[in-house]
């Protein structure tokens, strides 16, 4: 098969003009650079602001100003049930039943709340399996939970070492770890997409394996939500958590999310409770006995932060209109183009760490600078100066993530052109 891509501005512009999702870019504020738009590849870290957010925020401020406490019951979207206004679209994005998801808190908080219910160590089964090199929060959280239950991370934290060349992990390695340690593993806690390598995991295959060994399964979807079409319900995972400021464009420090599988909707699991998790029909009787609302809602503690939910609600409407399968289709093309450019135009400078199989990655390519740390840092700084915004991971990796809601083929070409220019002028 001949290469479907070309490294010319005419080709990239033609592809952008033919993109059925091209108008979604106009829904976002693209950070400016040198009189034009920057080339923003950092949706894996902080997604861009949908234009409609400002008016929507102002509308809530107006309700507050005009209605005071009555805003809980009046206005277009009464605050009382505000978290429910993001529920259906959130469920769509993660492939869950509406009752299985809730927008609340932040990722780290939700991870702890979920572990309170789903990490129930016993003397025989007390270990947690994570990947080596996990994101700090995840490692700190599981380690502190292990200690909290009186166990020792030395014996109860199993960190799965990479068994593939670029720091990625095969399903076979996970299978081997389960075969060896499965009977003492209480919880398998893995990412949907690994933040450093960009590797995507097969949630369903992992869940099926881990369940065979009697382990509970949770996923951290920080880099997967809004990036890959997920089928969380069908995966069978017990729970999942995520943040919403990355691909979901929920804004800095956005309200995170949690998934609790329907099989646990009525379970009497131990949990840390608050009034907003109480059965919503009797919540305002203010009784002393906690009766959880069925489903993920039952894990809520507090009444939702309305102003913080506004950007998420607006952004999820865009996801609903675009649809995860169309976004994935475009994402495959965009990231495929970026990969092709790196491999064909820049093989002397850059090497892709992220798996080549499209089923094992999302939008992000983690790209190693072959010249080492100093060269890498110099290149990264040059790119930022040039309005090309990726992010840097020590010691020598630049992460570039074309987000299909707002990135263009022309952005990918601009990245490759700038790297070549940097080399030529050095
Ligand atoms: C971004 C990210 C976090 C951040 O956690 P917060 O609680 O939202 O600050 C945690 N874990 C992973 C894997 C992440 O990618």
From TrEMBL:
Alphabetic keyword roster: Hydrolase, Pyridine nucleotide biosynthesis, Pyridoxal phosphate
Keyword Secreted applies: no
Annotated positions of the N6-(pyridoxal phosphate)lysine modification: 246
GO function term, MF aspect, one: kynureninase activity
Keyword Hydrolase attributed: yes
Pathway: Cofactor biosynthesis; NAD(+) biosynthesis; quinolinate from L-kynurenine: step 2/3; Amino-acid degradation; L-kynurenine degradation; L-alanine and anthranilate from L-kynurenine: step 1/1
Family matches, as InterPro entries: Kynureninase, PyrdxlP-dep_Trfase, PyrdxlP-dep_Trfase_major, PyrdxlP-dep_Trfase_small
EC number: 3.7.1.3
Residues where pyridoxal 5'-phosphate binds: 107, 135-138, 220, 223, 245, 275, 303
Catalytic activity: L-kynurenine + H2O = anthranilate + L-alanine + H(+); 3-hydroxy-L-kynurenine + H2O = 3-hydroxyanthranilate + L-alanine + H(+)
SUPFAM superfamilies: PLP-dependent transferases
A Pfam family annotated for this UniProt entry: KYNU_C
Function: Catalyzes the cleavage of L-kynurenine (L-Kyn) and L-3-hydroxykynurenine (L-3OHKyn) into anthranilic acid (AA) and 3-hydroxyanthranilic acid (3-OHAA), respectively.
Quaternary structure annotation from Swiss-Prot or TrEMBL: Homodimer.
PANTHER family: KYNURENINASE
Family: Belongs to the kynureninase family.
Protein known as: Kynureninase
Record organism: Dyella acidiphila
